[in-house]
């Protein structure tokens, strides 16, 4: 992935090479990594490239400089809320604004749409849009200097990029309500108590080492099991227990019989580390292959029907 093609992001493989871990860096340190219009265009593209890259198994999302993310860039807000001549038709202006908001939402949701786990490593400020980002991530860690705020209420805005939908499932409804209504700043230690982050580290260096160890551990596991676990957990968030159980039963009926299962059992018996194959390297290839299998199955099915005189 060419980081030079992005203005607001930088992507690179982690050391050691071949670990399956890639870094995705919010790269506007002079603006405290505020989320510009360019970011919302580039972020889903960057994640899609990483998702389709067979070398990538885990993504670590972090911020360049002293802060993770200071929120949405105020110039981005200005571009959204003002459009010359829009006052002539309030309905059309509102429809355009809704499309703009959905565009921004889709960029954040691309984290959940990425098959690969995304781990947030947070230092310094994580405010407003930064909360939107990390609540969409799969795992979150921070350093002791991190501080957080659901800041939108102080800007006379209802948070609309995912915090109000995702934060309650992470920290509980009552805690999310209090944080969103007050907009108050809270520390990394409180974030740990609330369950927003899994662990707090004394320094960024210590956090980076620990996050890399976690990421490498996940990357060493079956990619089918890892991506499946993420998909089932996300789907189950919106399902009842019965619906979630039915979904995972269907998922495993399609995925559990695999080379990964054979390798995991063989490695356990032989007392060695398992070595799992990469996922498909092309979304287009995967879709084409699936389409060909479906067409072949349908063709065989039709031949059977003709043989038995059902279609004659």
TrEMBL record:
BP-aspect Gene Ontology terms: fatty acid beta-oxidation
Classification from the root reads: Eukaryota, Viridiplantae, Streptophyta, Embryophyta, Tracheophyta
Against Gene3D superfamilies, the record matches this protein to: 2-enoyl-CoA Hydratase, Chain A, domain 1, Lyase 2-enoyl-coa Hydratase, Chain A, domain 2
> Per UniProt, which keywords does this protein have?
Acetylation, Fatty acid metabolism, Isomerase, Lipid metabolism, Peroxisome
PANTHER family xref list: DELTA(3,5)-DELTA(2,4)-DIENOYL-COA ISOMERASE, MITOCHONDRIAL, ENOYL-COA HYDRATASE
Name recorded for this polypeptide: Uncharacterized protein
Q: Which organism is it from?
A: Kalanchoe fedtschenkoi
Q: Name one Pfam family in it.
A: ECH_1
Under the heading InterPro entries, the entry gives: ClpP/crotonase-like_dom_sf, Ech1-like, Enoyl-CoA_hyd/isom_CS, Enoyl-CoA_hydra/iso, Enoyl-CoA_hydra_C
**Similarity annotation:** Belongs to the enoyl-CoA hydratase/isomerase family.
- Molecular function (GO) terms listed? delta(3,5)-delta(2,4)-dienoyl-CoA isomerase activity
> What does the entry list under GO cellular component?
peroxisome
Q: Localized where?
A: Peroxisome
